[in-house]
Design brief:
The protein has about 210 residues and is an alpha/beta fold. It has helices spanning about 15-25, 45-50, 65-80, 95-100, 120-130, 165-185; strands spanning about 5-10, 30-35, 55, 85, 105-110, 135-140, 150-155, 190-195, 195-200. It has 6 helices and 9 strands; from the N terminus they run βαβαβαβαβαββαββ. The relative contact order is 0.15. The chain binds glycinamide ribonucleotide.
């Protein structure tokens, strides 16, 4: 069985592209069925259309508050019977309405070794802090920002002459590698959440 995935993206969509490319491989156990954005002109929506995937813009201005927006988001995802939702550069804070609907079935990627540097400009925060190692994290979403049980991390070295741009590019290459890998593990039924831990089973359970 192929897992139906919904992707939430607000911007450039390079992680979305990595996921779409992985899904295009015949043996990959997941397919993106819808990409939803809060920004009408998000490049992510164009990438979805180019891949033949439904691209949906939900305009935040049509809703009175975040809960109402997220309720509409949940309805769209449920209507397409997605088994997993991936936040890929989705820059809105998700409310409990969404988190409850997709508890244990929603992944996020963040450009730091969490729990270090959650929130905006993680790479800038890492440089300003003077860390020698930075990286990326895929984790299950929970009610806090860039929180939730960690599925996978990748580390990269920080060079003395790194700028936000050079460090971001190094981290992004790892994001593109680990996000599809985490989705594959989820689709194969190999992830089990125990408290804050994610246990990765060696055997695939389909
Ligand atoms: C990525 O670096 C992702 O990790 C980050 O936004 C970028 C989106 O790039 N997400 C966060 O900071 C979430 N807190 P993309 O649109 O090219 O995938």
């Amino acid at each position: 069985m192929t897992l139906a995935v919904g992707v939430l993206a607000s911007g450039r969509g390079s992680n979305l592209q990595a996921i779409l490319d992985a899904c295009a491989r015949p043996e990959f156990p997941a397919r993106v069925v819808v990409v939803i954005s809060d920004r009408e002109r998000a490049l992510a929506l164009e990438r979805a259309r180019a891949a033949g995937v439904e691209a949906l813009w939900i305009n935040p201005k049509d809703f009175t508050d975040r809960e109402a927006f997220d309720l509409a988001l949940v309805r769209e995802l449920q209507a397409r019977q997605v088994g997993l939702v991936c936040q890929a550069g989705y820059m809105r804070i998700l409310s409990p309405v969404y988190i409850r609907a997709f508890a244990g079935r929603s992944l996020n990627i963040h450009p730091s070794l969490l729990p270090a540097f959650p929130g905006l400009h993680a790479q800038r925060q890492a440089l300003e802090h003077g860390v020698k190692v930075a990286g990326a994290t895929v984790h299950f979403a929970d009610e806090a920002v860039d929180s939730g049980p960690i599925v996978m991390q990748a580390a990269v070295p920080v060079a003395p002459d790194d700028t936000e741009e050079t460090l971001s590019a190094r981290i992004l290459a790892e994001e593109h590698r680990i996000y599809p890998e985490a989705i594959r593990l989820f689709a194969e039924g190999r992830l089990r959440i125990v408290g804050r831990q994610v246990i990765v089973n060696a055997e695939a359970r389909r």
